[in-house]
Automatic annotation (TrEMBL):
The lineage of its organism: Eukaryota, Viridiplantae, Streptophyta, Embryophyta, Tracheophyta. This is aldehyde oxygenase (deformylating). One of its GO terms (biological process) is lipid biosynthetic process. It comes from the Eukaryota. Residues 137-266 form the Fatty acid hydroxylase domain. The keyword Endoplasmic reticulum applies. Keywords: Endoplasmic reticulum, Lyase, Membrane, Transmembrane, Transmembrane helix. It comes from Zingiber officinale (Ginger). GO terms for cellular component: endoplasmic reticulum membrane.
């Protein structure tokens, strides 16, 4: 790999984020006015616009799909399970209050990458596809481990739960959970759960674009796991598992998969719960 701390190499990251800014800010801010903004402001504004767009597009499409287009498939007998428009609107309000601070996390990670503080690489060609796949798997394991324990401690440490995480757990029934609840957190809570993405940059070589894509994919993933529809795709920590988390508060803290809950004894299977209910 090229000397990752050299100014010439770090310039690649700057040019890459300049390109992202051009794509997002160019069509919105007239002329080149956005180029005169301080670089951190450019980054934050692009992340805010991008994060808001991903949140609304994902939430609206997913709600339309499960509550209207495929309602007879997913909710054929229980129309009361569909969240009210008021409940979803309140979730949107909570999310949009937090979004300015959420947008600070990728802004900070970009600054650290551009400054050469992390182990990021610019192009997959620098390491090869096999090494990239291995690094990505390690990155995802670190993120999964970090989110599991941060989420669990937000429950176990009572002041953290009371002042931060409880805001998200007011949504504790099927008719109050929706794709729009996925990012409806106290802003510090949301950042603490996502910070593993940034910490991993210091521990394992990481493709910069993959890191940014995975950060923004959190909006897509969290929308999916709050729709209360059990996808039954093992070992994915889907909505069936996460709905149990919102009703028992003591199980299924994991993020992408069930492995951490299985390893640390907090897994509760929605299939077993269904059998008990019968």
């Amino acid at each position: 790999m090229t000397n990752a701390s050299s100014p010439e190499y770090l310039r690649q990251f700057v040019e890459e984020t300049d390109w992202y800014n051009e794509i997002v800010l160019g069509p919105i801010i007239p002329g080149d006015a956005w180029k005169r903004l301080p670089r951190p402001i450019q980054s934050w504004l692009r992340n805010y616009i991008g994060g808001t767009a991903v949140y609304f597009i994902t939430g609206l499409l997913w709600c339309f799909y499960i509550y209207y287009w495929k309602r007879n498939v997913y909710l054929p007998k229980d129309r009361d399970a569909i969240p009210s428009n008021k409940a979803m609107f309140l979730q949107i309000i909570v999310t949009m209050k937090a979004m300015p601070l959420y947008s600070g996390l990728p802004t900070i990670s970009e600054y650290m990458v551009e400054s050469g503080w992390t182990r990021c690489y610019s192009s997959i060609g620098e390491v090869g596809w096999l090494a990239h796949a291995v690094y990505l798997m390690i990155y995802l394991v670190l993120v999964e481990f970090g989110i599991y324990w941060m989420h669990r401690e937000l429950h176990d440490i009572k002041p953290l739960y009371k002042w931060l995480h409880a805001k998200h757990h007011i949504y504790n029934k099927q008719n109050t959970l929706s794709p729009f609840a996925g990012l409806a957190f106290h802003p510090l809570d949301g950042i603490l759960q996502a910070v593993s993405h940034v910490i991993a940059l210091f521990l394992v070589p990481t493709h910069f674009l993959s890191h940014m894509a995975l950060l923004f994919c959190e909006a897509v993933w969290t929308a999916n796991v709050h729709d209360c529809i059990h996808g039954k795709i093992w070992p994915i920590m889907g909505a069936g598992y996460h709905t149990i988390h919102h009703t028992t508060y003591r199980h299924n803290y994991g993020h992408y998969t069930i492995w951490m809950d299985w390893m640390f004894g907090t897994l509760q299977d929605p299939e077993e719960e269904f059998i008990k209910a019968k």
